[in-house]
Specification:
The complex is a heteropentamer, with two copies of chain A, one copy of chain B, one copy of chain C and one copy of chain D.
Chain A: E1 3-12, E2 15-25, E3 30-34, H1 41-49, E4 56-61, E5 64-65, E6 76-79, H2 91-100, H3 110-123, H4 139-151, E7 157-161, H5 169-186, E8 189-194, H6 197-203, E9 206-211, E10 214-219, H7 221-226, H8 231-236, E11 241-248, E12 251-254, E13 257-262, E14 267-273, E15 278-280, E16 288-298, E17 301-308, E18 313-320, E19 330-335, E20 338-342, H9 345-358
Parallel strand pairs in A: 3-8, 3-9, 6-7, 7-8
Antiparallel strand pairs in A: 1-2, 1-4, 4-5, 9-10, 11-12, 11-14, 12-13, 14-20, 15-19, 16-17, 16-19, 17-18
Helix pairs in contact in A: 2-3, 2-4, 3-4
Chain C: H1 21-48, H2 52-59, H3 62-95, H4 101-107, H5 110-113, H6 116-127, H7 132-139, H8 148-173, H9 176-184, H10 189-218, H11 223-226, H12 237-246, H13 250-282
Helix pairs in contact in C: 1-13, 3-8, 3-10, 3-12, 6-8, 8-10, 9-10, 10-13, 12-13
Chain D: E1 2-9, H1 14-32, E2 35-41, H2 45-53, E3 60-62, H3 66-76, H4 83-86, H5 88-91, E4 94-103, E5 123-124, H6 132-148, H7 153-165, H8 174-182, E6 189-193, H9 194-204, E7 209-212, E8 216-220, E9 224-226, H10 228-234, H11 237-246, H12 250-258, E10 262-263, H13 271-274, E11 281-283, H14 291-299, H15 304-308
Parallel strand pairs in D: 1-2, 1-3, 5-6, 8-11
Antiparallel strand pairs in D: 3-9, 4-6, 4-7, 4-8, 4-10
Helix pairs in contact in D: 1-12, 2-3, 6-7, 8-9
The chains are: A alpha+beta, B mainly alpha, C mainly alpha, D alpha/beta.
Bound molecules: adenosine-5'-triphosphate (2 copies), magnesium ion (2 copies) and sulfate ion.
């Protein structure tokens, strides 16, 4: 079942939760809606399910406009973040519910309902627990009941709102694989919401990156990771270090110093790169120089916090675990892969402010405190 | 919810028709069983005009009954409040055996007939008992005096505060208290600065209900009061006396006072709660 | 608070740091004993004066049984009526916004506050054949006041807040998503209410029902004004107690009292146990 | 000195004692200079007796029934067993009787006890179990039936039983029954104390009701007694005795008549008031062997009243 | 302030939450208690704080046995998982609380309390918010208030129960740095609980790995990551692939095939290695051969799911993002770093069962489903 969202807006009173969104979802795809809190992911999902109706625009199920279709007839399986299981029903009753409320004429006989529910319970690996009540299950098990329940109605579309948001990191990871498998096996059109980029990248065929009620980018995990279309996407997906630079003379300059990175553009820009996509430079060629202010172990590598340039810009880079940089004071390096987003003089201040506010502010280049007394020395 | 643009029927709300019908049923029901009795009381109270109303209220016996009622409430409500807080603390903050049983015992007075509630004190302190004459020997009057009336009132209003607080405090858990203790607060400071503010609305509500019931109790008090006019008649008993004297307007005038008091406190509570609850 | 090393031996209470258990538990139990338990045990003791045979004769007296039947029957009926309409009232108060909602909400507690005698008189005034509602009902051939139906009317008034006040908070907490989930699964609004919402409210409804009923069984003040008080027809058990007292027959009065008390206590206990069980099973209170 | 007296009385005497108390206070003050406060407690007669038994410190009791005072005497010993002999007329300073109150114009044409059991007649009386007045009602009906059926006990029972089958509401007290009849407009006839009936005429609807005097009624003797145990303890014996004796005085008797009680000595009352009392044939409780016998026979648990309510089914 | 935990056990009724635990924590250390849900982390922390008393054993503060010390006198700052902020108090009042409930003789004057509280609020970067109520703060801000409040009493020991558990991934990450900074600045002895291994590794000086009420390993992040002391630790920290092997003839054998890994031991064993610590083998030398059943993007690398050996053991490995393996059917590889845990025949079954139950079970080498129909072919 293809899904079409066409120029959809949704306002709650004065808040615009969605602003003129368009999106085409193909049958059988596994799509992730990724974005920070409040970006409108849930709202979009609920619009598709028919739990909300758009202020403007249309939602298509195949070629059919869905606005007139009551939620009961949309045949969407919706999995709620907190599962919304019926707690006075057993697992079996929960899963059977959708079939047992069908109108008499299309309702399968009791035995068949039970059989189909048992099949689903089997599929989500909960056989043996079908007589339990939700309160007697772990979080991960509940999540799977919720999924089985949604799938029992043979939905054309499966919608999941932060399916693993409430779970332990470890459990979350396991369930991810499992969701992917289920998807591959059943071939539903699946849309899931997450604010965890790792989850989106690992799981989805395509990722829809949302921000403030708008879609910033739609693309495969590789596309959004390797070719972010906007500073927001770069910051939000994967780890990002950014530096305000200016371009000219075929080079990228940071605070008057050449960086050794080539660019044929001119003007102000933001330089983005990922901590692990750098190379260390020790041949004296133009590069970035950072004062090492902290070093910590990250799984297979060592993560360094640097202050770079005369502005003391905070930047993170990864070096091999056994690299002597950990014991040094300064690091000279160059991004191997980087992205430039041009910006003009006026916007510059505003942008950076926004960037900072999008995350929780912690002491970076602000006043006071012993940590911030280092003055970066430049090469 | 209010300003949602409803172009399709929301699945989680009733159709306007159903909503209308439900509201009509609710209003009709409340009207038949709550508002109309209220209207009767008030309209009867003022049947003979405002002057007669004041006359009924300012009658010395009426004033005496009001004083007695306030006195009884002033003793029994704080006692039950202290009990309610203590019981809720013990039940909500600790795990111990026999908790469900204790809760059932606290509920019990709800289900005891007011007649019995009075009777038990008659049995306990009446002339036929051991305790009554002994206390009398010491000059302590229980029955047919303020202590007896107070005891009966306490009995009847016993569960109100505890009932309100127990589920509330159970829901809130003990984390706040543990935090306060770890910050060096003593048990008393913890209760005063942390627990009390957390439960204030529930407490207020319980106290108001307890108070309203304490002032309105009829059956139990009637058994232990002795009905001595101007001395041991509480407002409800005085209302009965007036009614039996065919002085209907005066009876309802005093009743309207109780209703008014109850309404004012209930509405006040709602208003305060609305303003200060986050 | 002694933080001594505890072995896994039996202890009355789980150890913890929160202070004041002895104080509060001690006070609560003492106060409970003084105010409730000792007086009530006096009641039981008095009825035991009768001896078992006499007690049984009294308890199984047809008049007593009739009165108990009437009391319990009307209490059950009133509690049922309250359950249905109280549920609607709670629903309307929780789900709908309308001007004056908070006032209506506040007024629901009125029956707690109004002296029962006043309530009885007011209701009798309304529902008497020459009263506002009574006259109207009389046109249709219904008689309410001074019939057994009158008892039910009084008990509906008395018990209303119990149902509304126990259901309301639970209803407020019902997660909207539960309803939405049911809707996405294809359930009609009626199905949602009937099969999803109501079962979830059941423990609260049950509690409210039990409380309203327990209160109704014992109610005296309001009922005698509006019931006909005819033996075997509309004579309630508390009235029978009063009658026994007028006969200076304390033992008999207490016997009826003890029967009522035991039934009520048993009912409350069962309800509390059901509650505990359902909390354990469904994970809510 | 200051004295406080507590008079524990039954329901219909409120108006009488309100006035008499003032009278007594003034006269006692004039005589001795003592200040007296008199407290009243009103309620159903049986309930009042029980309160005194349970320890309510009444100086005097002025109840509806001899039986109730007997009960106090027996259960507490606070009243001398010979209390009836202490004051004239078996300690009943005033008497009353039972009459019918019917609606204006007597639409059901009720004239005597026989009419009460006609089809479609509804009779209002309180419950003899809880109301003193109602016991007088019961005995009056019984007395008439005995006469009418020439002492044939089964027929008498049948009549009384029929009578109560015509009672739709059994209030717990005389006042409640009056209210039901008058305010709720239920019933065709109210069996009432004579004084209640007159009061109803006066206070509740002049012209709305009529009094019907049956051919036979009973002489109701609401007795008064000193509670010796209490007055000795409180030191009020003298004044309490005077209080009760005052009821027999000229002033007391006149007041009783004014409040529709038949005074023990009619000659002391205002002749104007006396004209209001109709002549009628009265039996007395002594015809039933006195209260000591009548009470257990008719009203005790399992007595005749309970028997007539035994369900037939 | 050194902390000593000596042979401490704690039972709740029949459940043993802690079993004979001993641990020494040095003054100024930042210690992480890491373990799965229910492993007793919170219980241990509460024992130190004095919020619970041990069933057996002793807790030392410095040289002093603490059992007789009521919680008020322990001077521990405890930060609760859900903050337990006082809702009716402003930020300032919350932070001042600990000082203002001191006994009169040691209580600072009002002005000073306020000044000290403001300093702390400043330190946690909440200046300007001191008049707000907790309800008006974001999760991360509340967390910081909770910390400031705990630090106001100048604790000798700071205890934090899953300090960031309830926060967004992004916010969590930011606050981590910040906690480390605070710790470094103030020099408290700090113990924090987490079930997120990344958090523990990144933040702590030493990590205490707990499992079922016992300590499995104590060591620096590098130690526990690189030299796990038990299979549980290896599985729980970092990503692990495991294979049941047997040892002999100086080699490690998988299902009768040599793996090319040397070992001089003999018998049954479990071979553990990390997905990123492998090398691809294309020279035909002995190695592991896996059938590729899935491939997904992981930040900088590509993660492959393999079925290895005749038993079809599920194994994960990472290959460079642009490596052609993603398009192939089979992969030949060898771990670069690996660990062996010997096990005897009887235990083998049990162990593996345990391993599976410790995580949520999802369809690995179980029956049915299209995914599991591949038969791995070996070299
Ligand atoms: N029912 C509602 N009434 C008013 N505003 C709402 C409502 N639902 C959502 N909003 C607002 O719409 C915006 C988008 O909310 P939405 O729940 O879609 O975000 P989200 O991306 O799902 O965020 P999160 O990750 O926190 O779940 C937010 O500003 C939110 O406050
Ligand atoms: N108050 C208590 N009563 C009974 N059992 C308890 C109590 N507290 C903890 N337990 C039990 O003790 C064991 C350890 O619990 P603890 O809370 O310490 O685990 P944890 O490691 O903090 O887990 P989580 O990550 O889920 O918070 C668990 O089995 C738990 O069920
Ligand atoms: Mg959301
Ligand atoms: Mg924990
Ligand atoms: O007051 S009576 O006893 O007659 O009801």
């Amino acid at each position: 079942m293809d899904l079409g969202i066409q120029n959809v807006s949704k306002a709650f009173g004065a808040t615009a939760a969605l602003r003129d969104i368009s999106l085409a979802i193909h049958a059988g795809e596994l799509i992730a809606l990724l974005g920070p809190s409040g970006s409108g992911k849930t709202t979009l999902l609920r619009l598709i399910a028919g739990l909300e109706s758009p202020t403007a625009g249309q939602v298509f199920f195949g070629d059919e406009e869905a606005s007139g279709k009551p939620i009961q007839q949309r045949q969407v399986g919706f999995v709620f973040q907190h599962y919304a299981l019926f707690r006075h029903m057993t697992v079996l009753e929960n899963v059977s519910f959708g079939l047992s409320v069908r109108p008499r004429e299309s309702r399968p006989p009791k035995r068949e309902i039970e059989m189909r529910a048992m099949d689903l319970i089997n599929m989500v690996q909960l056989t043996g627990l079908e007589r339990r009540y939700p309160a007697q299950l772990s979080g991960g098990q509940r999540q799977r009941v919720a999924l089985a329940r949604a799938m029992a109605i043979e939905p054309k579309v499966l919608l999941l709102d932060e399916p693993f948001g409430a779970l332990d990191a470890q459990v979350r990871k396991d369930l991810r694989h499992w969701l992917r498998e289920i998807h591959d096996r059943t071939g539903h059109t699946t849309v899931f919401v997450t604010h965890d980029q790792e989850e989106a990248l690992e799981l989805a065929d395509r990722v829809v990156v949302m921000n403030e009620g708008q879609i910033e980018q739609v693309g495969s995990p590789d596309e959004v990771y390797d070719h972010p279309a906007a500073p927001f996407v770069h910051r939000f997906i994967g780890e990002a270090s950014e530096l305000p630079v200016h371009l000219g003379q075929g080079q990228i300059w940071l605070g008057g110093q050449p960086t050794g990175l080539a660019s044929d553009q001119i003007g102000l820009a933001l330089l983005f790169f990922r901590p692990h996509q750098i190379e260390l430079v020790d041949d004296g060629s133009p590069c970035l120089v950072g004062k090492i202010i902290a070093s910590r172990r990250m799984a297979g590598t060592r993560r360094l916090d640097l202050l770079v340039g005369s502005g003391g810009h905070h930047v993170e880079v990864d070096v091999p675990i056994d690299h002597p940089a950990g014991q040094q004071d300064m690091l000279t390096f160059r991004p191997k892969v980087w992205t430039l987003f041009p910006e003009n003089e006026d916007e510059a201040g505003v942008r950076r402010k926004e960037a900072r506010e999008a995350r929780v502010v912690y002491p970076r280049n602000r006043s006071a405190g012993p940590l911030r007394q280092y003055e970066p020395s430049c090469s | 919810m209010a300003d949602q643009t409803i172009s399709i029927q929301s699945a989680t709300a009733e159709t306007p028709l159903v909503r209308l019908v439900l509201m009509a049923i609710a209003f009709l029901f409340l009207a038949l069983f709550l508002f109309l009795p209220l209207v009767v009381v008030v309209s009867e109270a003022f049947r003979n005009g405002v002057g007669a109303w004041f006359q009924a209220i300012l009658d010395p016996d009426a004033l005496a009954s009001i004083r007695l009622t306030l006195l009884v409430a002033a003793i029994s409500v704080p006692l039950n409040m202290v009990f309610g807080v203590a019981a809720a603390w013990a039940i909500a903050k600790f795990e111990f055996r026999g908790k469900a049983f204790l809760i059932t015992l606290i509920d019990l007075p709800f289900s005891v007939s007011p007649v019995i509630s009075g009777l038990v004190y008659v049995l306990l302190f009446g002339s036929g008992s051991v305790l009554g004459p002994w206390l009398k020997g010491w000059g302590i009057e229980i029955l047919f005096a303020v202590p007896g009336i107070t005891l009966a009132t306490i009995f009847v209003t016993f569960p109100f505060v505890a009932r309100e607080l127990i589920p509330l405090m159970q829901d809130q858990g003990s984390a706040d208290e543990e935090a306060a203790l770890s910050l060096g607060a003593s048990g008393w400071q913890t209760f005063l600065h942390v627990t009390l503010p957390n439960i204030r609305w529930g407490l207020l509500y319980g106290v108001l209900l307890c108070n309203a019931r304490a002032m309105g109790e009829f059956g139990a008090v009637s058994v232990v009061s002795g009905h001595i006019r101007g001395l041991t008649d509480t407002m409800p008993l005085h209302i009965e006396i007036l009614y039996n004297e065919y002085n209907f307007a005066a009876a309802f005038a005093v009743a309207s006072l109780l209703v008014g008091l109850a309404l004012v406190t209930l509405v006040l509570k709602t208003a305060i709660e609305r303003r200060y609850a986050d | 608070m002694t933080a001594t090393v505890q072995s896994s031996r039996w202890h009355f209470r789980e150890p913890g740091v929160i202070p004041g258990f002895r104080l509060t538990f001690g006070f609560a139990v003492c106060y409970l004993s003084l105010v409730i338990l000792i007086p009530l045990s006096g009641l039981v003791w008095h009825s035991s004066n009768l001896g078992w045979d006499a007690f049984w004769a009294l308890a199984s007296d047809p008049r007593t049984i009739a009165a108990l039947k009437i009391s319990f029957g009307s209490a059950v009926l009133a509690a049922l009526i309250n359950t249905v309409f109280g549920l609607v009232v709670a629903w309307v108060l929780v789900r709908y916004r309308f001007p004056g909602r908070r006032i209506v909400d506040a007024v629901v507690d009125l029956p707690f506050a109004l002296p029962t005698a006043v309530a009885g008189i007011a209701l009798a005034t309304l529902y008497a054949p020459n009263g506002m509602i009574g006259a109207w009902l009389a046109d249709f051939g219904f008689k309410v006041a001074f019939t057994p139906a009158g008892i039910v009317v009084a008990l509906v008034f008395i018990g209303l807040p119990f149902i509304v006040r126990t259901v309301q908070p639970v209803l407020e907490e019902v997660d909207r998503e539960i309803e939405e989930a049911a809707a996405t699964l294809g359930a009609s609004r009626l199905d949602i209410v009937r099969r999803v919402l109501l079962p979830g409210l059941l423990p609260a409804i049950l509690t409210g029902f039990a409380m309203a009923m327990a209160r109704g069984i014992g109610e005296y003040g309001s009922v005698i004004f509006i019931a006909g008080n005819i033996p075997y027809v509309s004579e309630i058990a508390p009235l029978l107690i009063v009658i026994r007292l007028e006969e200076f027959n304390y033992a008999a009065a207490t016997a009826v009292g003890v029967v009522m008390l035991s039934i009520s206590f048993l009912m409350l206990l069962i309800i509390n146990l059901i509650q505990a069980w359902s909390r354990g099973r469904f994970g809510h209170g | 000195a200051d004295f406080t007296l507590l008079n524990v009385s039954y329901d219909p005497t409120r108006e009488l004692y309100k006035e008499y108390n003032q009278l007594f206070i003034d006269s006692w003050n004039a005589k001795t200079g003592d200040k007296v406060t008199i407290r009243m407690s009103h309620g159903g007669s049986g309930k009042q007796a029980r309160s005194v038994i349970d320890g309510l410190e009444a100086d005097v009791v002025t109840l509806a029934l001899e039986a109730d005072i007997n009960a106090i005497a027996e259960k507490t010993g606070k009243i001398s067993a010979a209390w009836r002999e202490r004051l004239p007329n078996n300690s009943a300073p005033y008497t009353s009787t039972i009459v019918f109150l019917v609606r204006k114009g007597n639409p059901k044409g009720i004239s005597d006890w026989a009419d009460l059991v006609r089809d479609g007649v509804e009779v209002i009386t309180p419950n003899p179990k809880t109301s003193g007045g109602a016991r007088w009602n019961f005995l009056a009906a019984w007395a008439w039936a005995q006469k009418a059926y020439k002492g044939d006990e089964p027929s008498v029972r049948q009549y009384v039983s029929d009578l109560f089958r015509h009672v739709p509401i059994l209030d717990t007290g005389a006042r409640g029954a009056t209210t039901t009849f008058v305010r709720r407009a239920i019933g065709d006839v109210l069996l009432a104390w004579e004084n209640e009936a007159f009061l109803a005429l006066d206070e509740l609807g002049e012209g709305a009701f009529e009094i019907v005097v049956p051919s036979v009624s009973i002489k109701a003797e609401p007795p008064v007694a000193l509670v010796d145990g209490n007055v000795e303890h409180k030191g009020t014996t003298e004044i309490a005795t005077a209080y009760l004796e005052g009821l027999y005085s000229e002033d007391g008797q006149r007041l009783a008549a004014r409040h529709y009680y038949r005074p023990y000595q009619p000659e002391l009352a205002d002749p104007q008031d006396m004209t209001r009392f109709p002549d009628l044939k009265l039996v007395t409780v002594d015809d039933f062997g006195g209260w000591k016998k009548a009470q257990p026979t008719f009203f005790a648990d399992g007595g005749i009243f309970d028997q007539i309510y035994k369900p037939e089914r």
